[in-house]
Amino acid sequence: MPKKGSDPVWCVVMFDLPVKTKTQRKQATAFRQNLLDLGFCMAQLSVYVQYLPLAAKLSNLVKLIKEKLPPGGDVRILSVSDIQWSKMIRFSSSAEVSGEEKPDQLAIF
């Protein structure tokens, strides 16, 4: 967990959503799209991540995710420090792959 609100963190959202009916599948797709709209990137099928330069923004993000959760859905949200994230070991097809780099700050014109 971050020590203070000014520390950067990676927000990891892991979820299971019901997809047995057509309505449930539409709701699951809408939930995934909402995560993308909030600035998340898909790490795995039901795991999305976002870099937050300020941990203080995490509580608002959690609230927005909770509001969009479909009925019967199960979500876990984990905040990971920048240091912990950089120590991640990642494999793809048995080959080690470097982890995601923290994004550059956006320039506002």
TrEMBL record:
GO molecular function: hydrolase activity; metal ion binding; RNA endonuclease activity
Cofactor(s) for this UniProt protein: Mg(2+)
Gene Ontology BP annotations: defense response to virus; maintenance of CRISPR repeat elements
Positions contributing to Mg(2+) binding: 16
Enzyme class: hydrolase
EC annotation from Swiss-Prot or TrEMBL: 3.1.-.-
UniProt keyword list: Antiviral defense, Endonuclease, Hydrolase, Magnesium, Metal-binding, Nuclease
Record InterPro entries: CRISPR_associated_Cas2, Virulence_VapD/CRISPR_Cas2
Database matches in NCBIfam families: cas2
Described purpose of this protein according to its UniProt entry: CRISPR (clustered regularly interspaced short palindromic repeat), is an adaptive immune system that provides protection against mobile genetic elements (viruses, transposable elements and conjugative plasmids). CRISPR clusters contain sequences complementary to antecedent mobile elements and target invading nucleic acids. CRISPR clusters are transcribed and processed into CRISPR RNA (crRNA). Functions as a ssRNA-specific endoribonuclease. Involved in the integration of spacer DNA into the CRISPR cassette.
Family: Belongs to the CRISPR-associated endoribonuclease Cas2 protein family.
Subunit structure: Homodimer, forms a heterotetramer with a Cas1 homodimer.
Name of the protein in its database record: CRISPR-associated endoribonuclease Cas2
Species this chain originates from: Corynebacterium diphtheriae bv. mitis
